[in-house]
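Run log, item B.
One chain of 414 residues. Sequence copied directly from the ordering sheet:
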Amino acid sequence: MTTTRTTTWTLPRILRDRNSALYLSGIVVSGFGTSALWLASGVWVKDLTGSDGLAALCMLAMWAPTLAGPLLGTLADRTRRKPLLIGANLLLAALLLTLFTVDSPARLWLLFAVLFVYGAAGVVHDAAESALVAGAVPASLLGDFNGLRMTATEGMKLLAPLAGAGLYAAYGGASVALLDAVTFVVATGLYACLRVRESTPEPPAGSWRARTAEGARHLWTHPRLRPLVLAGGTTMLFAGLNGAMTYAVIDGLGHDPAYAGVLYAVQGAGSVAIGLLSGPALRRLGERRFAAYGIALTAAATSLRAIPSDPVALVCSAAIGAGLPCVLIAALTAVQRETPDALLGRTAATANTLVFAPNVIGLAVGAALVELLDVRLLLAVLGLAWLVTAMPLLQSAASASRTATKSPSDANPA
């Protein structure tokens, strides 16, 4: 009963808050353009070159700057965040217009260069946004906001690729780039309307390397953040392994590869649902238990994917979609709550690197393993290993609960 009242109260409150509504609107608009370009860029390269490998490099170009997150995140702590968000959006809008000149394989270097800058600007943008949100949204509602952010992002992943594919088929890759540029301009207008008070950051002290390392040091030494970020990185490593087995699972079901679109849509629907429920769940369970239960659900669903049944596959996809974001939402919310504002940009960027970079490794390792071993065995072992990663979170949550409920007489016996 309490959870229901909390849910119906917090969601309207977030949506009625001017800054929260503007943030979410900007995320929806720019996320739509990004998701559309993500699909169209690979198709564009494939059409120009006929190479699957070069088409795959589009995603690599966008993801590679994540590895430099600790370094790029320092920019979000050296200047005011609102102007930085606006500047990053306008830079990307201008760069995307240069893609109108890409009309042959000889000009593909420009597409890859723009995608690389796109990824780097995205790292800075996300770090500045996380820091700005932490100061604009009440701490008690950060979980709700981050859940709605997840819902908005996953919702765009369900809709935008179809729109991008249709626009590409009708007018070519440059038209999708123009769409993305327009979404960045619109998002710039939304961010410009934010009402936030920011002081000019203190002049940096120490070397660039030392300032960059401060975010990682904060995560490693913080007793609540370290287990969440480590669990997030391990989860995304295993998510990459699991993702690499998708087409082998589809083969076992007797479907064409296009059936992956159905599974991904169902998974996205699960992520949208958990995004709406994450705020109340975080308040009821706490960050570590919420993350642990999500990991456990994902682990069980991954193992059950070994069963060659369409209904089971669909249920498992929905469960993975619901379970996988839990640790990501919990980790981001904890970082925003537990990090000083002056350090938040580089800490958030470092956390994103530690959490999301392992996904690329998992994809590569999974692609090799699925060629060598039976997919049912791989899924069973992966699910068991994944479940083990939830145990430290449950143990630390139980320890924290015992400490919190310990009475003063227990702590200071007569």
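Observations after the first pass:
- The chain is about 85% helix and 0% strand.
- The domain at 1-195 is CATH 1.20.1250.20 (Growth Hormone; Chain: A;).
Flagged for discussion on Thursday.
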